Amino acid sequence: MINTTTHIHYKDKIPLHFEIKNLKGNKNEFLSMTTFLISENIEVIINKALNVLVPFTDQIFKDEYEKKQGYFELGEITVEDTGPHSYVSNHITYTLAFSLESHSGFVLDYLSYSVVFDTQFTLTAVSRG
Q1: CB 9 within 8 A of CB 38
Q2: What is the 3-state secondary structure (H, E, C) of 22-35?
Q3: Is residue 2 pLDDT above 90, yes or no?
Q4: What is the pTM of this model?
Q5: Confidence (pLDDT) at 77
Q6: What is the pLDDT of residue 90?
Q7: Which strands form 123-128's sheet, in the order they lie side by side?
Q8: Which residues does 35 contact at the CB level (< 8 Å), separation at least 6?
C-alpha cells in the first residue's frame, strides 16, 4: 500500500498524491518513475485537460467563462490504483484536479473539475463536483 504525497514543479509546486493499493514491484522505483513521467509530460497532460474543460464549462456557463476572463488552475494530481476490474490499462489513473478562477476576480464556480487519464495519457473521464 502506498499512500504518500510528493510534489512536481509546474509554475509552482503541485501536490502529487499516490493512492496505490496493490503495487507489484519496487515501491521507490514506481514513485520516482511515475513522478518523472508526469513531470516530463505535464504540459501535454494539462493541454489535453484544458481542451476538454473549456468546452465543458461553456456548456454550463455559456459566454460567462470568456466575459469574466475565466481560467483553470491546476491544484493537484492523484495517481490511483483503480483495481483489477477497471477498464483502464495497468489499473492506474492520473487525476488532475482544477479550480475555475477568473482574472476579473469574479467567482464563477466553487466546485472542482477533474480530468482522468490512463497511463498512456488517454482521457477516460471528466467531472465537476
Answers
A1: no
A2: CCCCCHHHHHHHHH
A3: no
A4: 0.85
A5: 94
A6: 67
A7: 2-10, 12-20, 70-81, 92-102, 112-117, 123-128
A8: 6, 8, 16
